[in-house]
Amino acid sequence: MKFTAANGSVPRVAMYLRCYPRDTWQLATHQEALADYARQLGVPEPIVFMDNGFSSRVPLPALGSLVSSVESGVYDVVLVVGLFAFSLDGGSAGEVVQRLQGAGCEVVEIPSPPLAAAR
Fold first, then answer.
1. How far apart are CA 12 and CA 77, in angstroms?
2. Is residue 16 within a helix (H) or strand (E), and if so which, with residue range?
3. Strand pairing partners for 50?
4. Which pLDDT tens digit goes with each residue over 13-31?
5. Can you give the pTM of this predicted structure?
6. Cα–Cα distance measured from residue 9 to residue 57, given in angstroms and rounded to the nearest whole number
7. Separation of alpha carbons 76 and 14, rounded Å
8. Is 82 in contact with 49 (CB distance < 8 Å)?
9. Which range, of 10-14, 22-26, 62-66, averages the lowest pLDDT?
């Protein structure tokens, strides 16, 4: 997978994380997994947007900031561990993805780890 910005330059990358209830470890495992994936993709270290402790049923300040930034042309790629980070409701999560993609941003989910071979 190769990513470039709309103008052909190095892509500007963000990651979005959300956990409810609050994760006292600040989603460190997911954050590191996304940073590792960014390195595998050969893109710059992602800027972190995190709504830790926010239910998807209330306004999400970091997500709002991320969407505004994408719509302003600041980011070209958003990495997530899964679309559920945007909302547990598939329709609502899809709306966020469509909005980001409509602004010219690629939304990339980290691939699931391979299952261990059956013994």
1. 6
2. strand 13-19
3. 17
4. 999 999 999 999 889 999 9
5. 0.90
6. 37
7. 8
8. no
9. 22-26
